[in-house]
Queue: 4 jobs
Job 1
Amino acid sequence: MSKHKPLYSPRRTCHSETEICNLFERHMKTLLDQKCSMINEITEWGNNLIRQIQENVDKQKCLVERGYKNQLHYLHTKHQQFLDTALVYEERKNREEVRQLLEQCHELKFELGSFEYPEQSIPFIQIEKEQKLVEVTHNSFNTHQPAKRSTVNDDFRIKVHEGISPSSNGIK
């Protein structure tokens, strides 16, 4: 089902009018197809970018989890070392060494790290050229001589995506 409104009502009877309307209907269909194709390409670009961002999010979360597990293991190891050392100091009844050990416990710091926000270039998609409408002016019609070409030829086209391949948006 076409998404554009026909240019004429079905009651036209002149052959040339009908042919002209049919040509313009085809032009509108071509234009609609181009629009749909471009919308799909923009959507694909956006989905690829979102996927890349989500992959980075997942990777960073994994790094935080790994860092947490490593720090937790180190924390448990240090905890056990301090407990063992404290027992030795307690057996010797050396209050000064126990006090120093407690100070060392207070001074310990455990951190997972911090975030950096390096600048990343985002390859935004955009239309390379403005759409140019090709119009035939009234003066270009030669009313005294018949046209050399049939009106069936599609001599006039709207070129939107000239020189851009679908994969040239920088996203893989």
Note: The CA atoms of residues 72 and 79 lie 10 Å apart.
Job 2
Amino acid sequence: MKRLAREFESKGYQVQTRENNLPSGAGRDGAIYRPDIIVRNSDGQIAWLVEVETSEGGKAVVGAAVLADICMRKMNVTNRPKLLFVFYRPESNLRLARKRLQEIKERVSAVELMAPLSEKDALEQIANT
């Protein structure tokens, strides 16, 4: 997570890796969704939500995508933050995660589902933003 956070910070984003309770203002008990990293642009709006995955790419990505979508709707965001899943396990997890996200893509409208990536590819994509 530290490498991802540093890469976002090098691009001028504000990065939050603790107390990521969403919707905004929710306490630990009231949070619906807690992403690993929240990335905000210069005006404080959420630009990216990042999930760092070390397990299988099935239910975990679908659940996180749905919860992120619910929270962004509840917060009435005016932009669509990008939701990025970063995997540290074999390629098979990436394929499974891509398949699962593709199946729900039409139902998620408040976040932009990014293709799940390996850490190396995620760092490269962030560097190119």
Note: The helical segments are 2-10, 59-74, 91-104, 119-127.
Job 3
Amino acid sequence: MQRAKYKYLPHTADIAFVAYGKSAEKAIENSAEALLNVMLDLKRVKKAAGRTATTTVKESADSLENLVWYTLQDILTKIDEKKLRAYGFRVKSFSEKNLRLTGELLYKKMKEDPFLLEVKAVTPEGLAVKKGKNGYEIRILLDV
């Protein structure tokens, strides 16, 4: 049985989730998808006519937790600034040793409004990255 990419956790005021991946890169991609799924109707965006466009996300940090935080916050900022109809994120290069990541945020140009919920921030509170025998788990809290 295949493990879920992510699951949402109970939280009193905001949105919390845990994302999984066999590698840190996959866990980060799944974290981005969980973030996007809160903000946008991903099925509508994926089905929308038109070509997929990309914008680059490039981050470096002093810890894996901060690299995840910076990456997700950068994705959120790009979506907010340009009202991007994003539906995915791909890690193109990653170095756990040097704590650097380059990825592509995938989006479509569409007139429809697929936005569901405003996410104010990806918070560092409670953010945790754990490596276990089955891969990585990333816990995230979104301020909504």
Note: The chain has three helices and seven strands.
Job 4
Amino acid sequence: MESVEQQRRDMISACYSNPNWDGKDNAEKRNEYLRELNRHFNSAITAIYYPEGPKAQEIDWSNPFFAAHKREIARTKRLFAEAQGKTMQDVIDDEKAKEDQFAVDQSDNGSGNGQVRKRDYDQEIPRNT
């Protein structure tokens, strides 16, 4: 692995020391070359550590830390499914509208007027001056 890293550093140094890459025409080509070079070396290093491919992590869903996160995973998957063909701002606006509607429904208390009741911590506190 160390020799692969050394070879990567040598090739990057050679790329920057070659004056043929310095012109305006080749500046973007050099960036593309370096991206491909890094991608190649990253895959070579991965192959060194995991010859059969990277192993999938086993998640213990009975662990409280992961169990709490399970709801967020489901919510994220739902949002990605709803986002097909929409901009992210549209998805965020839809989610905000659902949250606002839920707040109205929760504070309605059967009065039917649909007004949001102020919570105790939203109330202004009168001050004696």
Note: Residues 2-49 form one domain.
